[in-house]
Design brief:
By secondary structure, the protein is mainly α. Strands 1-2 form a two-stranded antiparallel sheet. The chain is built from six helices and two strands, in the order H-E-E-H-H-H-H-H. Helix 1 packs across helix 3 and helix 1 (2-15) packs antiparallel against helix 6 (110-127).
Length: 131
């Protein structure tokens, strides 16, 4: 079932180019946009100037890295790739939910939902009893 892991990782890889978030100001952010802006430090709520913001930044960037590594491991045929990706997506979601609060469900975009579905498909059909 490594083929399913590969296909699910391709689905998640394609989702990187779709908008993951549509913030209330009207801007849309794809995964690549979120990654580049978090590396540059241009997200205002990820400003690592205080200890709390620095912790939030590290956790958020760790979630992004786990999503990216989940896709990479899945593309290389590893069955644990979707599991790592869904764990990274959970960390990514927890930080985003912390920032946006109850309005989190309103800002989700197609790319985020496609990534979630791709990782879930990979876990259900590729992981089986052995991850």
């Amino acid at each position: 079932m490594r083929f399913v892991s590969f296909i699910s990782s391709v689905i998640v890889g394609v989702s990187f180019f779709f908008p993951w978030f549509k913030v209330p100001s009207g801007e849309s952010y794809s995964f690549w946009g979120i990654l580049s802006q978090s590396i540059e430090g241009s997200f205002s709520w990820l400003n690592p100037s205080s200890a709390t913001s620095l912790g939030l930044y590290v956790v958020f960037f760790t979630g992004i890295l786990m999503v990216f590594l989940g896709v990479l491991f899945g593309l290389l045929g590893g069955r644990s790739g979707p599991a790592l990706g869904i764990l990274g997506l959970a960390v990514f979601t927890a930080v985003s939910w912390h920032v946006y609060g109850s309005g989190f469900g309103k800002i989700l975009g197609v790319g985020y939902l496609l990534a979630l579905a791709g990782f879930a498909l990979g876990i259900v059909f590729a992981g089986g009893e052995y991850l």
